[in-house]
Amino acid sequence: MAAVEGIPCLYMRAGTSKGAFFLASDLPDDPGDRDNLLLRIMGTPDPRQIDGLGGAHPLTTKVAVISPSGDGADVNYLFLQLGVDTAFVTDRQNCGNILAGVGPFAVERGLVAAAEGHTEVRIRMVNTDSIATARFATPGGAVDYDGDLRIDGVPGTAGAIRLNFEGTAGSSTGALFPTGRVLDHVAGMEVTCVDNGMPSVLVRASDLGASGNESPADLEGDAGLADRLGELRLSAAKLMGMGDVTRDTVPKLVLLSAPEAGGTISTRSFLPVRVHTSIGVLGALTVGAGVLPEGTVGHGLAELPPPGAPLRIEHPTGHFDVDVAVEPSSDGLAVTRAAALRTARKIFDGYVFPRPRL
User: Fold this and answer.
1) Residue pair 194/290 in contact by the 8 Å Cβ criterion
2) Which of 65, 142, 161, 230 is the most exposed place for a label (fewest CB within 10 A)?
3) CA-to-CA distance for 175 and 167, rounded, in angstroms?
4) Confidence of residue 4 (pLDDT cuts 50, 70, 90)
5) Which of 181, 209, 204, 210 is nearest to 293 (CA)?
6) How far apart are CA 136 and CA 121, in angstroms?
7) Cβ burial, residue 358 (10 Å; 0-12/13-18/19+)
8) Helix (H) or strand (E) holding 106
9) What DSSP character marks residue 349?
10) CATH topology identical between 7-160+343-352 and 184-337
11) So what's the architecture of 184-337 in CATH?
12) pTM of whole model > 0.85?
């Protein structure tokens, strides 16, 4: 058998996730061959991922594939979520945390020239065909990962990366509220189905017999809750026009409860089985859009700030502030503003050597 060749790879912590960043030109053109290679790189399937880069959790088993873009953007960003103990690769969802590393990666790989002071990179998110612009510090023409911004779920501080989103509402399902309603009854429960970049099903924690302040481990260990959430997710997905999502990671399920630390709303997000130790960028933007309108399951639980102020989304390891506005439009409700601050850090840049076979 021929020796396994190394693949150029930049490994980054982006937001509250970690992932392997690749140029599309360094990976096979055929999606099946590409996915097989990525599974071998990450060490999937194996709950420990002992033979690859993966960190034994969905949040650390992510891939970004970047290429130049000539269609109103600087670069194209394809996000791929890999399984941990199950061999799958899916592009059915986007990832706003990994997105935070795309602008710096584009500069590191020479796809975008750094400006003096700060650089803006316009990114086409291929999964949802929507646009985000990342702005970050580039003193002296190089990415500065250092800074004073602290985000909950990540130790220490790092340089701020501002993400401004366009076209997030309905980017996966066609509408901000895919069912045409802000409130639905699914599997005997009231839910709000919403898509502001991450198709999600919002449900009151109390309706599931939970307090909403449980730890991720406690929620994951509740077999009865898992069964109810599984039924709820499959039924809601069909109502949202997403079909059979048995093998997909979307829609996400989010348990909502009243805030406990001065925020807007408290959340526990399912991925769809593991529980997020914080919350994703697009997940937070979606929750924000999902609690603002009257009549949603979260509106009555939320402590809404004055108009124009950020929404503080509480999660298991702290909070995440997002800037979201929802206003009436000719065809219902529209998102008029969606932005967030994240950080990212380059961990290593070099070659990764995949295991020879699955």
Assistant:
1) yes
2) 142
3) 10
4) confident
5) 181
6) 9
7) exposed
8) helix 102-108
9) E
10) yes
11) Roll (3.10)
12) yes
Q: Which two tokens stand for residue 14?
A: 């982006």
Q: How many CB atoms lie within 10 A of CB 260?
A: 11
How much of the chain, in percent, has pLDDT values that exceed 90? 94
9, 347 in Cβ contact below 8 A?
A: no
- Which residues fall within 8 angstroms of residue 232, CB to CB, at 6 or more apart? 186, 187, 189, 191, 201, 203, 253
| pLDDT at 87 > cutoff 70 | yes
- Confidence band (pLDDT; 50, 70, 90) for 1? very low
What DSSP assignment string belongs to 172-191?
A: TTSSSSTTSSS-EEETTEEE
Which tens digit of pLDDT belongs to each residue from 133-145? Answer: 999 999 999 999 9
Start-to-end Cα distance in the chain: 15
Q: Which helix (H) or strand (E) holds 107?
A: helix 102-108
Query: Cα–chain-centroid distance for residue 231?
Result: 23
In this structure, which amino acid lies at residue 161? I
CATH of domain 7-160+343-352: 3.10.310.10
pLDDT tens digits for range 259-301: 999 999 999 999 988 999 999 999 999 999 999 999 999 999 9
- Ordered by start, the domain boundaries in the chain are 7-160+343-352, 184-337
Least confident stretch, 3-7, 261-265, 304-308, 343-347: 3-7
